[in-house]
Amino acid sequence: MQKVLGRSQQAAKQAARRARARTDKTVYELKKQRRRQSVDWNRKQSELFKSARKRLKEDWELGPLAPKRDVGEMEEKWCTIHAALLHQPPSGKKTGAAMERMNIRAGDRVVMLAGRDRGKIGTVNSISTGNASLTVKDLNMREVFLQEWMREEDGFPQAVHGYPADVPMKHVRLIHEYRDPDTGLSRDIIVEEIKTMPVRNRMPDEPRYERYIEGLPASELEDSTTKIDEETGKKVEVPPFPWEKIPWPEKTGYQHEDHPDDTLRITVEAKTFIPTLHGPPMPPNVLDELRNRYSKFRTRHTSEYIARKEAEGSEEEARKVIPDWMIQPSKALREQAKNRKKPATRIDIMEDEGFLERLGQMMSEGRPPAKRLAHNA
Fold this sequence. Notes:
Layout: H1 2-62, H2 74-77, H3 96-102, E1 109-112, E2 121-128, E3 133-136, E4 141-145, H4 148-154, E5 160-164, E6 167-168, E7 172-179, E8 186-191, E9 195-198, E10 209-217, E11 225-228, E12 235-238, E13 243-246, H5 265-268, H6 284-291, H7 303-320, H8 329-340, H9 355-365
Antiparallel strand pairs: 1-2, 1-7, 2-3, 3-6, 4-5, 7-8, 9-10, 10-13, 11-12
């Protein structure tokens, strides 16, 4: 039985080792793919800038003789970019935690700090945590040439269509409408830094923390809450937080659409099986099919299987015992000689009654004590 358990443990270790190797390979391939995408994105952007500078230089040198470029194949593609340049290249760093600290969500109002739309305010459409960027509605628009199959798929009759390009997170700031508690006037303010506070006793669909502006007085104080003091066990009133709270954007409700093939709710909630203690919930053969009774990872076995394996182990141990009539004379002599040899035992010198007297006599005579203070029996 110990062999069976050892084989299961060895199989589990080998499976874990293979899983780690697969994980390492997946991480390596992901890094390689991100590096390739970043190089491709930089190459396409560099080619776009080089061709634009080259055309600008030719137009400046030729002056009135400069050629008209928006003709032929470039008639529809003129002043458009490649669709891959709409999105920022993936970052190799762990940007998920950084995006979490930015505290900007879809539906928030932000102001652009760079680009041709600098100073304009828009609403966040989507956020990409892989490259720490976001898209703003009707801002940072880029014209992209759509192939014929793309136009048919998206339903766009025009060959050129405008899309919002990704904006790095560092190029935007959150906008909050703040009402001055003294004057009662509302104005938009640019939030440079946001402080977060965890939310206690929250619902599963609610955010884990709230956003606040440190040092800015709250325009509307919330109601005071109560909590139980850990030392006294009594309810204590907690005053409202004095900083300005930034509300989270409202989530758009999900519109559920029924279809003719949907399963009815009454059919799903109908109880078709009631378990009892008189028998297993399903036949044993079904259990064997689910857990694979012949799997090498199995650690729980039936009593019959354990008894059979223990019997096999006992038989194997019995076969290792050599009967007396099979022992050779030379081996029997070696066993007898081994039994006759007794290990040397050391006698405690403190138990010898005359040892201390002899030791004192030798010390008084100035002779060194004997090297061997114990003797073999």
